[in-house]
Design brief:
With about 90 residues, the protein is α+β, with helices and mostly antiparallel strands. Helix content is about 45%, strand content about 30%. A hairpin with a 3-residue loop joins strand 1 and strand 2. It is elongated.
C-alpha cells in the first residue's frame, strides 16, 4: 500500500473528501517526522514503533583505494515491529 492508496482508503472509510483525507495523512506523517527529527520515539500501538539510532564516528576504509576515511557521527531512523503485527502477518 502506498500513500495514495492510504488516502483513498481513508476517504472511503471516513466518508470525507480526497483533499481532507490527503491533509490528514500528510499531517500524520509530518508530526511523525518532526518527532523523529527531535529525537523522540513514535509508537503506534499494535503496529510498530519508530526511533532514531545514533552512531558514533569511526574510521572506515575506501574500498577502491584502501585509504582511511573518517565517517562522521550520524543518526538513522529505525522501525521495530509490534507483537500484534507480527502475529497478524504470520497468522
Amino acid at each position: 500500500m502506498n500513500k495514495l492508496e492510504l488516502i483513498s482508503a481513508l476517504k472511503r472509510e471516513a466518508n470525507i473528501s480526497k483533499a481532507e483525507a490527503a491533509k490528514v495523512i500528510q499531517l500524520f506523517f509530518d508530526y511523525m517526522s518532526d518527532a523523529l527529527a527531535r529525537g523522540s520515539r513514535v509508537e503506534v500501538r499494535g503496529l510498530c514503533s519508530f526511533y532514531v539510532k545514533e552512531y558514533k564516528s569511526y574510521t572506515g576504509r575506501n574500498p577502491k583505494t584502501g585509504e582511511k576515511v573518517l565517517i562522521r557521527t550520524k543518526k538513522l531512523p529505525f522501525i521495530k515491529k509490534g507483537k500484534e503485527l507480527r502475529e497478524r502477518v504470520d497468522y
